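Standup, Tuesday
Yesterday: got the pipeline producing structure tokens again.
Today: sanity-check two examples.
Blockers: none.

Example 1:
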Amino acid sequence: MSPKVTIIVPTYNRYELLKKCMKSLLEQTCNNIEIIVINNGSQDNSSEYLNSLKEKDNRIKLIEFEKNTGSPYACYNAGIKEATGEYITFMYDDDMLVPDAVESILNLDEQDVILAPCIDEDSKELTVKSFGNVSKSITIKDMLNSNQGHGEESINFVKSDILKNYIFDEKAYGGEGLIWIEIINEHGAYYLHKGLRIYKKNEAHEQFTGYENYFKNIERIIYSSEKYLELYKKINVYDIAKTRYCKQVILLIFLYLYSGDRKKLFIVLEDLKSFKLKVFMPFIILVGFLPNVLTKRLLINMNKLRILLRERKR
């Protein structure tokens, strides 16, 4: 029998979209799957639907939280604890797997970590193009020097005996990349050049798109950004992916400017000096005198440019 694959699906108040997601999972060409759905305090018909589905199909496990945790990572961690498959992957509740997604993974030679692109629901194009048009092994250097995100626009299958050694940080906002970077740094990955997940773009997938929600969560975003920089230093990202490192430092500088945390601002400015970007110093000092509303507008416009450039590079 082929190895079992566990698919973990957090859901919150997306009953209609969830039905499409579950249909795509239950109709996989490979039947040896385990579907763990975490109902994160939904107030719609999701609970009734999932309990009914569970009664009809023993491949489904259901975990229900009475209240929303405010983070998908609490759901991820709960699902990982219950997982019994040899491989684990995660799904958004508004996305769908292509019919042979699991079969495609299991047809490969044994791999510790497998990364595959999604298919953009609107354009029908693959969301990851940075690794070329062939399947191949990739390193953390390849990943960090690419335009590829860390989760929302790709799908990862990881051996459970590896993933169970990690815990998703539930305080982080947009922080699942912290886990993927650590795992790929340690184990490498195999890139499968085939779209396996149909990706539905919306505000929940792009942490900067819902700007008001973004600034409401500014403390969690600063926390996540600090964790990324801490991890980058730990694995010497500056030596293998200078652009990625610089972007993280500059993001933190503007977040500290916005939050008014001048003490941390001056600490992170030392990082700016260390990679010879002193040309930015007068600009940053000038921004430091701007009122928060203008700093906020600057952050929004900078990120719109970032998204535009990333899309064009793809």
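Example 2:
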Amino acid sequence: MEQTITAARDLFYLFSCRLRDIPCDPARLEQMQLRPMLSLAQQHTLGAMTCMSFEHAGLLERLSPEDAAALKTIDLTHAAAHSAALSAGAVAVIAAPVYGGHVAPTAAKRLETLRGSGTPAVVIAVYGNRAFEKAAAELAALAARQGFVPVAAAAFVGEHSYSTPETPVAAGRPDAQDLARAAEFGAAVRKKLAAGTPAPVDAAKLKDVHTPLVPMLRFIRFVVGYRRRQKKNPVVYLPACDADRCTHCGRCAAICPTQAIARGDEAHTDPARCIRCCACVKGCPVGARSFHTPFAAALARSFTRRKQPVTIL
């Protein structure tokens, strides 16, 4: 039991580092026992997240070839896959960010390179504590078109792209509580799969967590006003770079999912490519990049109440 608890804590630590894109403590990594962690991940259908976290922490080289092969991830963050196909015997976990209540267009386009063969799939929409609206249903429909069978769906909260210390929106999430819910969800999915011939789910029945009326009306009023102002005097909001602080390390260019920043020209952001995900802002090691949008303050004022993950099996 003690070994299982330690493995769970180590997994949650790795997940947190990967999701927040922060380095792991080398001393802690050295003490980790990987085999119990892998067993726990397989029990709870957390293979994809475990693989990405192991890769982020530099632990893949410590795995045997057999263990490494069992953990397969297809990362579409920076580019589309080359027509990746998954067999009916596999289980796919397909996750995508939410933009304005829909699956992010860039993510949707890249997911179209995946192919299933009646492959069971768990679809997960990740949103910033405002609302996921139709995103989970869209993701499930996309997966079905690509040959997958959505057998479970969920919406989890992650720190909003526009969140800053001054305008926090779901800051620090997913946190330990979210990761515990993810583990519970994975265990439930595994149980459903083990029962044989799992039935598909209707992801449209996954309901948004309620937002109180007053904050919702406040946000709607802001959006209406914002659209009127943009119609009169259009303003293009882009991440900005403080040239005095920038060290030209190239990290922003490396982590930009749409190649909107060129190495060597980090002060410039291509407005035609930028999707305002703020990966460059959150990933800059010296805090040289920032993104100022009126939406940040409006979201921080209106969506302070914590929203819990929702799932359907």
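Quick observation on example 2: The longest strand covers residues 148-157. The mean pLDDT is 86.
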